[in-house]
């Protein structure tokens, strides 16, 4: 690895990102994942908009693309088990909602969380290794006024084995997503030159 890239990564890792649970459903499928790439996308209080970055190889990304609906959830700092359950490998293989109280709405919404947001997607941008969704927040429910879970809260509650699994899953995702980004950039370069 390029030493400069390691330093850049270290700077970004120093941010204590908010942990989000992203959920969606389409027809008889539902899915969710743990994410940090959720950001306010409008400063206009009359038009609350979020930008959500999801990897295209994730089941939840497919569900958001199909349904154009997404649930966003902030967790309390003591909900590391929920964050870990949604960080597990693909929801194509098992139900990440197992044992979690959920409103069977579209999108499915967790009932026990700090705050939940129901959103409708109005724009989708492919960036190779990420799909960025812009979505209107159409409803929300705040269950807590205390702090929300951040990465430091989550990792401090994970076991050594869980952290090792998360690192392994991250490496697997990078191996899948790196060629997607390269292909996207190559295609973009070729179309921009013509």
Write up this protein.
The model has no long low-confidence stretch (mean pLDDT 92). Helices cover 36% and strands 29% of the residues. The radius of gyration is 17 Å and the shape is globular. The protein starts with a helix and ends with a helix. The chain has one domain: Roll (Pnp Oxidase, Chain A). It has 5 helices and 9 strands, in the order H-E-E-E-E-H-E-H-E-E-E-E-H-H. The chain has helices at 3-13, 59-67, 80-87, 151-157, 160-193, and strands spanning 20-26, 29-35, 38-40, 49-54, 69-74, 102-103, 109-110, 115-126, 131-142. It is α+β, with helices and mostly antiparallel strands. Helix 3 crosses helix 4. Strands 2-1-5-8-9-4-3 form a 7-stranded antiparallel β-sheet. Strand 6 and strand 7 (109-110) form a beta hairpin.
Based on Cα principal axes, name the global outline: globular
Instruction: Return the structural class.
Output: alpha+beta
CATH superfamily: Electron Transport, Fmn-binding Protein, Chain A
Overall mean pLDDT stands at 92
The CATH topology, please? Answer: Pnp Oxidase, Chain A
Helix residue percentage: 25-40%
Radius of gyration from CA coordinates = 17 Å
Number of strands: 9
Strand order in the largest sheet: 2-1-5-8-9-4-3
């Amino acid at each position: 690895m390029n030493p400069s890239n390691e330093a850049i990564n270290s700077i970004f890792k120093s941010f204590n990102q908010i942990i989000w649970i992203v959920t969606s459903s389409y027809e008889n499928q539902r899915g969710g994942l743990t994410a940090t790439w959720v950001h306010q996308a409008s400063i206009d209080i009359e038009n609350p908009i979020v930008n959500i970055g999801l990897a295209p190889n994730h089941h939840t990304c497919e569900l958001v693309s199909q349904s154009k609906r997404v649930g966003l959830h902030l967790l309390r700092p003591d909900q590391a088990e929920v964050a870990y359950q949604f960080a597990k490998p693909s929801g194509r293989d098992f139900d990440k909602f197992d044992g979690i109280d959920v409103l069977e709405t579209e999108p499915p919404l967790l009932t026990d969380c700090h705050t939940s947001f129901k959103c409708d997607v109005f724009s989708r941008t492919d960036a190779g290794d990420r799909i960025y969704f812009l979505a209107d927040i159409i409803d929300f429910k705040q269950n807590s006024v205390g702090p929300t879970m951040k990465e430091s809260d989550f990792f401090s509650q994970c076991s050594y084995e869980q952290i090792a699994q998360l690192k392994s899953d991250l490496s697997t995702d990078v191996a899948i997503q790196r060629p997607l980004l390269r292909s996207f950039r190559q295609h973009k370069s070729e179309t921009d030159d013509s």
